[in-house]
Write a structure and sequence with these properties.
four-stranded mixed β-sheet; GH3_C; GH3_M; binds adenosine monophosphate; globular; ligase; 20 helices
């Protein structure tokens, strides 16, 4: 389709008229970033002028940045917990927002071991939808012809709970997939999925994955891009194929649907898609039965142009495995978002993962940036709010923690993400995602911090008491060499009575005790999503941690300042630890987890 030259964009020639509008919108937003930010803040503050939280700080109707910054504190989730709890318990007064809180979005970030509850309002769905609508127009600038085929995306809903006051609590993507915005989205030739809505919306993860994989195999020649939200999700799909290709090939051969797929709406919709296809079944058996799965993605889906998965931040650990299975296909990280707020998008989605930068869209929320000096005491104290800088005032090369004020009632809220400014698109800065603060271990969306790990080790080591044994040192490692990955905890033990050392059985139980002590996102990954494997304790021989210190000192660490790292990922250190392992133990069963009602 010829595109009116009036719509041409500095980002590149748009693929169609609709794209031209989206690109123009990006230009407008990024050119006027400061003005938009000022308006967003004024809008949030004026509509919420009468809410309890803002009145408490005597904003007295002011909507300007100076007053806002001088009166409102910069807060963390825990500071807001009383208000969140009241809303969860059913208090419908205007506590945080003048618009009714429509539901809670459950973050993968936890507080006291439970998912954080993020309030949201109905219109936030429109804002999220708007950001989604910008992704393909940008992608079309770099990858032509995406309207000639489909996307195989593995998308899932997760369990929902209700708060005591009756509000739904569920992950943001579950909320989005279940919304009309997603379910009744208009046909867009550039955004056609192989997965039927019925499969995406099935809460049983096996049935959902099976059907999505089956549909992807049936349309393997049409698939132009493969994706999941995070890299770990796509690898889980590959693992699923490794485990279930025989059944999938059988279904394709016979034109029937596996009896384990009992969801009536999936069965109804699949009846129309299935007919016997011997040739395809043979092909799949032939490819999947090979020992070597290198490049399996491009063998099965030969027209794939790129993988659409987030591989920035904690997900970077999966890049080598994705490269292995895809034969090095480009990895596209398209957006940066959270339960609290969707932030922005990558205007150069085909860039190398290490060079990915996200442009924060100034219409999504009001953004502030807390300068982050690595090693400083920032974060230990309540930072003087005046130190925060506005979106357009951040400096290239510097690191900041993201602080947001949203339409849904978060005011100067610290997200906990550390970002580094890499440049600007017009007046909107672009950020490299550096890391999430305080995350030691992560396999999927789980985030385990040092305090949680410490507590888990302490709880587990109680079991060693009767053997007069204690854990003298420990460290950890996220082992992603297998799918799903799992936590490895290295323990050095002090066995005081060598005639009665802890048995293997007890050490296995220690693994389980650790898992039971970890936060609910971890346990959900283990139990409901099967996205995390059994925790492993590797007992190392005595003196290993001293060797670790010697090694660090030989590389320049100061003896006075040396602290045992509670997580290791530097290969020589992992190798050193592994070479000293005397026994390895795994959780013998799944930890406790249930989608309980929120307190
Ligand atoms: P959740 O609250 O569970 O929705 O998780 C949101 C968090 O996931 C963000 O605050 C980031 O720490 C992380 N995240 C989201 N998008 C990206 C991305 N594109 N790259 C790296 N980390 C991301």
């Amino acid at each position: 389709m010829a595109v009116d030259s009036a719509f041409s964009s500095p980002l590149g020639p748009p693929a169609c008229q609709k794209d031209a509008k989206a690109l123009q919108f990006i230009e407008e937003m990024t050119r006027n970033a400061d003005l938009i930010q000022e308006r967003v803040l004024a809008e949030i503050l004026s509509r919420n002028a009468e809410v309890e939280y803002l009145k408490r700080y005597q904003l007295d109707g002011a909507t300007d940045r100076e007053t806002f910054k001088s009166k409102l504190p910069v807060i963390k989730y825990e500071d807001l917990q009383p208000e969140i709890q009241r809303i969860a318990n059913g208090d419908r007064s205007n506590i945080l927002s003048a618009h009714p809180i429509s539901e809670f979005l459950t973050s993968s970030g936890t507080s006291a071991g439970e998912r954080k509850l993020m309030p949201t309002i109905k219109e936030e769905l429109d804002r999220r939808q708007l950001l989604y609508s910008l992704l393909m127009p940008v992608m079309n600038l770099y990858v032509p012809g995406l309207d000639k085929g489909k996307g195989l995306y593995f998308l899932f809903v997760k369990s929902e709970t209700k708060t005591p006051g009756g509000l739904l609590a569920r992950p943001v993507l579950t909320s989005y997939y279940k919304s009309d915005h997603f379910k009744t989205r208009p046909y867009d030739p550039y955004n056609v999925y192989t997965s039927p809505n019925e499969a995406i919306l099935c809460a049983d993860s096996f049935q959902s994955m099976y059907t999505q994989m089956l549909c992807g195999l049936l349309e393997r020649q049409q698939v132009l891009r493969l994706g999941a939200v995070f890299a770990s999700g796509l690898l889980r799909a590959i693992r699923f194929l490794q485990l279930h290709w025989q059944s999938l090939a059988y279904d394709i051969e016979t034109g029937t649907l596996n009896q384990k797929i009992t969801d009536p709406s999936i069965r109804d919709c699949m009846v129309q898609n299935l007919e016997p296809n011997q040739e395809l079944a043979n092909f799949i058996r032939n490819e999947c039965s090979k020992q070597n799965w290198e490049g399996i993605i491009t063998r099965i889906w030969p027209n794939t142009k790129y993988l659409d998965v987030i591989v920035t931040g904690a997900m970077a650990q999966y890049i080598p495995t994705l490269d292995y299975y895809s034969g090095g296909l480009p990895l596209a990280c398209t957006m940066y978002a959270s339960s609290e707020c969707y932030f922005g998008l990558n205007l150069n989605p085909m860039s190398k993962p290490s060079e990915v930068s996200y442009t924060i869209m100034p219409n999504m929320a009001y953004f502030e940036f807390l300068p982050h000096e690595p090693g400083s005491i920032t974060g230990l104290t309540r930072d003087p709010p005046s130190r925060l800088v506005d979106l357009v005032d951040v400096q290239v090369g510097k690191e900041y923690e993201l602080v947001i004020t949203t339409y849904a009632g978060l005011y100067r809220y610290r997200v906990g993400d550390i970002l580094r400014v890499t440049g600007f698109h017009n007046s909107a800065p672009q950020f490299h995602f550096v890391r999430r603060k305080n995350v030691l271990l992560s396999i999927d969306s789980d985030k385990t911090d040092e305090a949680e790990l410490q507590c888990a080790v302490e709880n587990a080591s109680q079991l060693l008491r009767e053997f007069n044994t204690s854990v003298v040192e420990y460290t950890s490692y996220a082992d992603t060499s297998t799918i799903p990955g799992h936590y490895v905890i290295y323990w050095e033990l002090l066995v005081k009575d060598s005639s009665n050392p802890p048995t293997d059985e007890v050490l296995d139980q220690c693994c389980l005790a650790m898992e039971n002590s970890l936060n609910s996102v971890y346990r959900q990954g283990r139990v409901a999503d099967n996205s995390i494997g059994a925790l492993e304790i590797r007992v190392v021989r005595n003196g290993t941690f001293e060797e670790l210190m010697d090694y660090a000192i030989s590389r320049g660490a100061s003896i006075n300042q040396y602290k045992v790292p509670r997580c290791v990922n530097f290969t020589p250190i992992v190798e050193l630890l592994d070479s000293r392992v005397v026994s390895a133990h795994f959780s013998p069963s799944l930890p406790r987890w249930s989608p309980e009602r929120r307190r």
